[in-house]
């Protein structure tokens, strides 16, 4: 039964929705993101630490901040022989030293040295090793 065949007092039931043109000017354009900035980064704890470290210490005769007091204490500990304090200072001022990786079997390290920059990029991107790369076969 079509709408034309319905008795005159009977109406079509169900929500048919508004015209397809309603809201057209407000729809996202093709290729346009609905959230271009992405979800806002939330760093509430880090921000709270930064704010607190920037505050002046109450009743400090020199008017230093909490960060300055921590730095003084860290340097004092390092001078007294605290190796961890000295390492922390060095890491923050000079940057962390690179960690060396040593191989017992030089085959793998030599194979990595032989790889071209394209092969290294492919390995870094998706873990793909070249066909010639030696594989570690399990001993049977």
Topology:
Layout: H1 44-54, H2 66-79, H3 83-94, H4 106-114, H5 117-126
Structure, briefly:
The chain has five helices and no strands. By secondary structure, the protein is an all-alpha fold.
Q: Can you walk through the features of this model?
A:
Among the domains are: 52-94, no CATH class; 100-133, no CATH class. It is 40% helix and 0% strand. The chain has helices at 44-54, 66-79, 83-94, 106-114, 117-126. The radius of gyration is 33 Å and the shape is flat. The N and C termini lie far apart (75 Å). The model has no long low-confidence stretch (mean pLDDT 82).
What attributes does this structure have?
5 helices; mainly alpha; 140 residues
List how many beta strands DSSP finds: 0
Proportion of helical residues: 40-55%
Give the radius of gyration: 33 Å
| Helix/strand/pairing category | mainly alpha
List the helices and strands in order. Answer: HHHHH
Number of helices: 5
Q: Based on the structure, what is the oligomeric state of the protein chains? A: single chain
Percentage of residues in strands? under 5%
Mean pLDDT: 82
